[in-house]
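Q: Got a minute? One more chain.
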Amino acid sequence: MSWRYTYCPKCGCDRCFTVKAVPDEAVVRGKKISFIRKDCFCEICGTEVYSKVINDENCDARLAAYGEDNSPTKYTVEFTSTVEVEAKDSVEAVEKAQEMFSHDSMYIYVDGNLWS
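A: Always. Here it is, folded:
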């Protein structure tokens, strides 16, 4: 069976579907992104249907859009002393800072907030 066929719940059987490109926005890890989403519709009744292939393409489009504006951000991480590291998010910033120090028990602050 071709990947252009999927189950249509309204028709009750597998049907060929059409794909429409729709501009979309989403928030990924706190960043607003814009991308082109693909929606699938049954060619017989017009009901929106699910396609794993198209869903995977939509996921790839979101990841690509997130990666376009995903340059490192500077975070201030405080231990006994203060260091600045470049990272994609605060989790990565803490991990990089922890690599610089070998304290077993410490309080960690990221941009003034206690890291838990």
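A: Strands lie at 5-8, 13-28, 31-42, 48-49, 73-78, 82-87, 109-110, 113-114.
Q: Perfect, thanks.
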